[in-house]
Amino acid sequence: MGPLIPLEIITGHWDFVIALLIGGAFGYILEASGFSSSRMIAGVFYGYNFVVLRVFFTAMIVAMVGYLYFSYMGWIDMSLVFVLPTYLNSMLFGGFLMGLGFVIGGFCPGTSYTAAAIGKIDGVVFAGGVLLGIFIFSELFPFYEDFYVANNLGNVTIGEMIGVSNEVVAFAFVVIAIVAFYVTSIIEKKVRKNMTEYKFE
Amino acid sequence: MNTKLSSKRKPNYINPYFGGVLLGLLLLTIFYVAGRGLSATGGLKLIVVTLVDKIAPEHAENNAYYRMFLPKDGSSPLSNWLVFGALGTFFGGMLSGAISGRLGKLRIEKSPKISNTTRLIAAGVGGILFGIGSQFGRGCSSGAALSGTSAFSFGGLIIMALMFGVGYVFAYFFRKLWI
Amino acid sequence: MNKKYLFLALLMLLLATGLLILPERHNFQQMKAENLMWEVVQPTRYVTVDQVAMMIIDGDPTLELVDVRPINDFATFSLKNAINIPFDSLLNPNYQGYLGIEDMNVVFYSNDDIRADQSWVIARRMGYHNLYVMKGGLNSWIECIIKPLKPDETASLNEFEDYEFRKGASIYFTGAKLESSDKKSSVNVVRRKKGSAVAGGC
Asked: Does the pLDDT of residue B177 top 50, yes or no?
């Protein structure tokens, strides 16, 4: 029965070892899928490479469906798994900034680590930027302390928000993902035909 | 410092769907083991907190945000799951790069239309925006968008939708950086 | 290539459809006896009166003291900021709002351990988390915190440290005058060193 650490089945400093291993697997998968290349990632915005969408959505639907089956089998207690709380105002703003940072910088923090790890200076600079960004945010925190916690909806799930069960949400995501995979593969083919200068790295 | 060097050899990335399934199973594993999702920015945040606390302890104590992440018993914020996870991500990436021959000398990847400096400035600015945004959003693309949405968090979905949506809206203005 | 993907897409759809048609099942409404057994024997579910006193003095915002004695007893004497959920009202829906508040550590107490312990099991069975029992209950509270006994001259240093803390705490809670033999002139709560757990040592 899981989750193991919140139920204190695994305790002590073992969780750090597990964190290291899981982080390692995460980095390995990101790099092996090509996320250490910013031009490859940015391709999702220009239609020449949808690898981000493929990896991201596949991971999401596999995790969602698997998670619900785990819960159904009684292997994991969903009430103990962390559901990110929704602070509407702050999250809308944060999502906006991250979208902008994504298209300008071409990485997200996780992928910038892997890029830095294989020797890409832009990856190092991006990670440094994230560090600086967090510092700036913290220093100016008193100015938007109220905004940061405004409109707190609590640990609300997608299903609760729109009034359906999580099973339906997962099903909808699977359908959307499969349609998206198909459509983007057609777009990708068309865009690549017209692109001559981009060498697939 | 040349993109041509690395683009000559065709990179042998794994099939993206296969990568996706692996990542999905990893997410499932971390839900099962730790009851939470993956995170990338959390580690950096704790590094910032530690640095500020080391350099100006009083300042850190007076700032409500730093105080949130300083352990009450006075131990180091760095002995935390998130830091080890971020460290693991770095070495995991290095391992994969080494196995498939992408681990190389220092280089900058960019569109041929822009200079190295432009690319680095863009990367830095993007990083800063991402850093600030991740704090407002309570997680970055891995923590909020991927893990959050997979655990059916409504906030995670918002972050994911906005991140890609805003990216598409502004993509036109920054196309020179990439194509 | 395309056929493979078609197969995978269908597989994924099938799995997702499976979720929709599976009959509902509630795995975690009831706690398994083995799990409850395992948790009951964990010593970590107890807190000592010293720990509670320390948390009250520190104004720990996560502490939620729950008095499970009858209302009359609660009215006569209770710990600072405690709320009263009489044992027989534990299942009453009106009181459920007090349990299961995020980040709050609920500490049950009664005159001794027994009622509090029973409350712990019932509440745990209802699915609440972060529940604790104050070891020894109010009897122990009076004995240790309100009227601490000076340890023997031969007692260990730890016991003296405990005594110092308890004396300070006693003054804090009762507002009692300092003993004349005591040189300290102000209320001084001596903090017990971490880890020197003399749980139930009194």
From this structure: yes
| Contact between chains at B6 and A34 (C-beta distance less than 8 A) | no
Q: How far is C5 from chain A (nearest CA, A)?
A: 10
Residue C104 to chain B, least CA–CA distance (Å): 16
pLDDT tens for each residue of B63-99: 889 988 888 777 888 888 889 999 999 999 999 999 9
B73/C contact by beta carbon, under 8 A: yes
Same domain, C170 and C94: no
Percent of chain A with pLDDT over 90: 56
Residue contact C20–A171, C-beta within 8 A: yes
- The number of residues in chain A equals 201
Calpha distance C47→C55 (Å, rounded): 11
**A87 close to A149: Cβ distance less than 8 angstroms:** yes
- Assign residue C48 the CATH number of its domain: 3.40.250.10
* pLDDT at residue C27, as a whole number: 57
How far apart, in whole angstroms, are the C-alpha atoms of residue C198 and residue C125? 30
Chain A residues close to C9, C-beta within 8 Å: 178, 181
C38 within a domain of the structure (yes/no): yes
Sign of the dihedral defined by the CA atoms of residues B24, B26, B29, B34, in that order = negative
The token pair that represents C120 in the structure block: 């712990």
In a domain, C6, yes or no: no
Beta strands in C14-93 (DSSP E): 46-47, 63-67, 83-84
Is there a contact between C8 and B17 if contact means CB atoms under 8 Å apart?
A: yes
Please, what is the Cα angle at C83 between B72 and C88, to 5 degrees? 130
Instruction: List, in order, residues 6 or more apart from B151 with CB less than 8 Å away.
Output: A67, A81, A82, A83, A84, B31, B37
CA dist A176 and A174 (Å) reads 6
Chain A residues within an 8 Å CB radius of C22:
72, 167
Indicate yes or no: CB of B73 within 8 angstroms of CB of C5: no
Q: What are the tens digits of pLDDT across the range A60-112?
A: 999 999 999 998 888 888 888 888 889 999 999 999 999 999 999 999 899 99
Q: What are phi and psi of A77, to 5 degrees?
A: -95, 105
Would you say B6 and B107 are in contact if contact means Cβ atoms under 8 Å apart? yes
Alpha helices in B37-153 (DSSP H): 41-55, 57-62, 64-69, 81-99, 116-136, 149-150
Domain membership of residue C83 (yes or no) is yes
Q: What is the ipTM of this complex?
A: 0.92
Total domains in the fold of chain C: 2
8 Å CB contact between A106 and A45: no
Query: Does A192 score more than 80 pLDDT?
Result: yes
Please name the residue that has the structure tokens 């777009």: A187
Chain C adjacent subunits, 3+ CB pairs under 8 A: A, B
Give the number of beta-carbon pairs within 8 Å between A and C: 48
Task: Please check whether residue A32 is in contact with residue B97, taking contact to mean a CB–CB distance below 8 angstroms.
Answer: no
pLDDT band at C29 (very low <50, low <70, confident <90, very high): low
* Residue contact C5–B17, C-beta within 8 A: yes
Query: What domain range is C169 assigned to?
Result: 143-174
Q: What pLDDT does A25 receive?
A: 95
Quote the CA–CA distance of C31 and C126 in Å, as a whole number: 8
